[in-house]
Design goal:
The protein is an alpha+beta fold. 23% of the residues lie in helices and 24% in strands. It has a five-stranded antiparallel beta sheet with strand order 12-11-10-9-13, with no helix packed on it. Strands 1, 3, 4 and 5 form a four-stranded mixed beta sheet that branches.
Length: 274
C-alpha cells in the first residue's frame, strides 16, 4: 500500500540475497525513518482508491487521534515527498490540500525543495502550447534515459530506466531459467507474484496474475518489468523467490504531454500506435 498522489525519495538499499545495492535519493533515508517512527506498528485507517500496474494499492493512510495524521499529506508538508508525475488533484481524495502542502514546502525550501526555483514551475493559466514552450525554453523538464518496453496506443506506453542497476541484475538472475527449473506453479490466485515464460522468446520474466482461468490451467500474466501481458499455460508459470519479488516493478507507465492521440478504438488509432 502507498499513499495516493505522492512519491517519497528512495532510501539506500544494501546488497542482499544476490540483489545489488541501490543508491538512495536525497532525504530518502529521512523520509523512511520518519514514516517508520510514526506509522510502524500503529493501527491506522486506510481507504483504497485504486491500484497501480504493479499491484500496489493506492489510497489514504491515516493515523487516527485528536489530530489525525495523513501519511501522504504530512510527508508533503515536511518537504519529504513530491507529487507523482501527471498528478491530477481531481482524481485523488484531498488532492487540493495535497497541492497546498507541496506549495508551502516549496516556498519554505524544505528538504527535497531546498533548490526549488519558482521559475521551474509552469505558470498557472497558460494554455497547453504555451506551457510546453515555457518548459522547453527553461530546460526545467527532467531528462531520463529510458527504453520503451511496451506500446499500448499512440499516447500510452511503458518505459524502463536504462540507468537502473536492478534491471540488469534481474536479467542475469532470470537468464538461465528453463521449464525444468522447478515444478509448475499451482494454487496461484489473482494478484500473486510469479515468473512467466514469454512465448515470443521463451525467456522468463517477473509478473503477477491478473486472471485465473476457471475452466483450464491457464493464467493471464502481466509482466511487471515491461508492461505487456500474455495468457500462459500453467507449465509456463513458476513461483517466485523472495529476492526476485523484493525488487520493485521496473515498467513505468508514460504518456505524451500536451497531445491528444486517438485511442485504438478511434479512427487512425492503430496507425498512431504503429
Amino acid at each position: 500500500m502507498a499513499p495516493s498522489g505522492v512519491r517519497a525519495p528512495q532510501r539506500p538499499m544494501p546488497a542482499m540475497g544476490g540483489r545489488p545495492a541501490a543508491a538512495g535519493e536525497p532525504y530518502g533515508l529521512e523520509a523512511y525513518l520518519w514514516t517508520r517512527e510514526h506509522f510502524n506498528q500503529r493501527e491506522v485507517e486506510i481507504e483504497i482508491e485504486t491500484a497501480d500496474k504493479g499491484g500496489t494499492f493506492l489510497g489514504s493512510i491515516v493515523l487516527p487521534g485528536a489530530k489525525p495524521l495523513s501519511l501522504g499529506h504530512t510527508l508533503a508538508r515536511l518537504g519529504l515527498a513530491k507529487t507523482q508525475q501527471f498528478f491530477d488533484a481531481s482524481r485523488v481524495k484531498g488532492g487540493q490540500e495535497l497541492l497546498a502542502a507541496i506549495q508551502a514546502a516549496k516556498e519554505a525550501r524544505l528538504k527535497v525543495w531546498e533548490n526549488w526555483n519558482p521559475e521551474d514551475d509552469v505558470v498557472e493559466g497558460e494554455d497547453d502550447d504555451e506551457a510546453a514552450a515555457s518548459a522547453a525554453a527553461s530546460g526545467s523538464g527532467e531528462v531520463l534515459p529510458v527504453t520503451v518496453t511496451e506500446v499500448v496506443d499512440g499516447n500510452d506506453f511503458f518505459v524502463q530506466s536504462t540507468t537502473e542497476p536492478r534491471v540488469q541484475w534481474l536479467e542475469e538472475q532470470l537468464r538461465g531459467l528453463g521449464l525444468s527449473d522447478g515444478p509448475a506453479a499451482t494454487g496461484l490466485v489473482l494478484g500473486s507474484l510469479c515468473l512467466g515464460q514469454f512465448s515470443l522468446d521463451n525467456n522468463w520474466y517477473r509478473g503477477f496474475v491478473e486472471r485465473v482461468s476457471p475452466v483450464e490451467p491457464k493464467y493471464e500474466v502481466y509482466f511487471i518489468d515491461f508492461g505487456n501481458r500474455e495468457k500462459l499455460p500453467s507449465e509456463r508459470v513458476r513461483t517466485i523467490d523472495a529476492a526476485l519479488s523484493a525488487v520493485p516493478p521496473q515498467a513505468r507507465p508514460a504518456g505524451l504531454a500536451y497531445l491528444k492521440v486517438p485511442t485504438l478504438a478511434e479512427d487512425f488509432g492503430s496507425e498512431a500506435a504503429g
